[in-house]
Amino acid sequence: MESINPHTGQKIRDYQPFSDERVAILLKEADQAFQAWRKTQFAERSKLMKNAARVMRERKNELAQLMADEMGKILRDGAAEVEKCASCCDFYADNADKFLSSQTVESDAKESYVAFDPLGVVLAVMPWNFPFWQVFRFAAPALMAGNAGILKHASNVSGCALAIEDIFLQAGFPKGLFTTILVPGSSVEKVIRNPVIKAVTLTGSTPAGKSVATAAGSVLKKTVLELGGSDAYVVLVDADLDLAVDTCVQSRLINAGQSCIAAKRFIVVRELREEFERRYVEKFKKIRFGNPNEPTSDMGPMARVDLRDDVHKQVEKSISQGAKLLVGGKIPSGPGAYYPATVLGGVKPGMVAFDEEIFGPVAAIIEAEDEKDAIRLANSSPFGLGAALFTKDKAKADRLSREIEAGSVFINAFVKSDVRLPFGGIKESGYGRELSSFGIREFVNTKTVYHGNTKTTKTPEAVGAGAALE
């Protein structure tokens, strides 16, 4: 397992994978830490989670540099990611008690309520593109709910993975409560099958999600999956075109286009398509890609050379299928995993740029006949993570947002994750939700507690009636 700087192409460090024996010991220690942690009060958990937020803010520059070195994120974006993680910790420290308070329910019982109890040790299988945020949006709610966490991170960001474990230790969390294990992807199924693991969350590709879901399902363990996306940004005839173009450009190039919820398919009604395309291309031509450590860079390299090469193959295949290369599309000379901001026009269903997720700085512009056709094209995808609509008509936006098949629809704005709102997808973009009150309840036992009337003696008829109602 090795970390390679995607800017220079030079190796940063080799990491020795953990042995099966070491992993087994760490899982046992996590379970022991959980048994004590589950009994702690929310006030104690909250204090430590606030500490974690403080530690991250104090180490912001160091952690941003680590992301730049390991996966090419430009420094200002890395600093913003660290701040977002700290805010996530603050949010759950402040709200977990409220989200998980027992809920009284009227029934025929003397008293009945719903309680939310932790499940145990949760395995998180995480990707490299947002190496801190992807983890903390799981870890903060999971730990605040009383669970323990095991992190299997992407191999190319092992330094980030170890730094996250260190953040929780520095914040004062019990040893073993949050642990990073350095193992290859081929070892994940074995970890899932360990009886200590009670649930699994994965952010990653659709094939990876299916693999994890299959393994977890075979041993009846809960999963939450946030998978790939090919988000459609629909630009209607009454859109504010300046806002639409600026937002669509920004969303496509966040993190060098390496985001599940980045805009990928731009579906523009016929009346606006030519003007939208002209403005869009002009803005892409001005994007400066380069050293992530330089403040003048708008975009850093992609995370790995092989990933860059895969994106280029998708671009070339789309062109061979009839798409038009409007800007970019050429691998630059020199070291590093760089790829220019690229726009493909004339994209239609059946082309790679329409049917597949392109995980890089490549935009696909698609012309729709009208509003109805635009929604049809937006839904003509196996993915359903996010989508955006551009229109000045609020009533129309609210109506059409209910017709779009996605886990979230943003109106006149780019899709983003917000700790206050549930986040996740449908179809091949996964299932389950992260963030908000919905996310913290994914890894708890939603338990019914029923107090019967102790003065009532059950008759055989009553027992039979109860059995019939079960």
Secondary-structure arrangement, i.e. CATH architecture of the largest domain: 3-Layer(aba) Sandwich
Estimated structural class:
alpha/beta
If helices are DSSP runs of H or I spanning 4 or more residues, what is the number of helices?
16
Name the overall outline: globular
If you consult CATH, what is the topology of the largest domain?
Aldehyde Dehydrogenase, Chain A, domain 1
Mean pLDDT: 96
Q: What radius of gyration results from the CA coordinates?
A: 24 Å
Helix coverage percent: 40-55%
Number of strands: 20
Strand order of the largest sheet: 12-13-14-11-10-16-17
Percent strand equals 15-25%
Largest sheet: 7 strands, mixed
Identify the notable features of this structure and list them briefly.
470 residues; alpha/beta; Aldehyde Dehydrogenase, Chain A, domain 1; Aldehyde Dehydrogenase, Chain A, domain 2; 2 domains; seven-stranded mixed beta sheet; six-stranded mixed beta sheet; 42% helix; disordered C terminus
Task: Kindly describe this structure.
The chain is α/β, with parallel strands linked by helices and 470 residues long. It has 2 domains: 2-227 and 429-449, Aldehyde Dehydrogenase, Chain A, domain 1 (3-Layer(aba) Sandwich), CATH 3.40.605.10; 231-411, Aldehyde Dehydrogenase, Chain A, domain 2 (3-Layer(aba) Sandwich), CATH 3.40.309. The protein contains 16 helices and 20 strands. The strands form 5 sheets. It has a 7-stranded mixed β-sheet, sandwiched between helices. The chain has a 6-stranded mixed β-sheet with strand order 7-6-5-8-9-19, sandwiched between helices. Strands 3-4-20 form a 3-stranded antiparallel β-sheet, with no helix packed on it. Mean pLDDT is 96; it is low at 459-470.
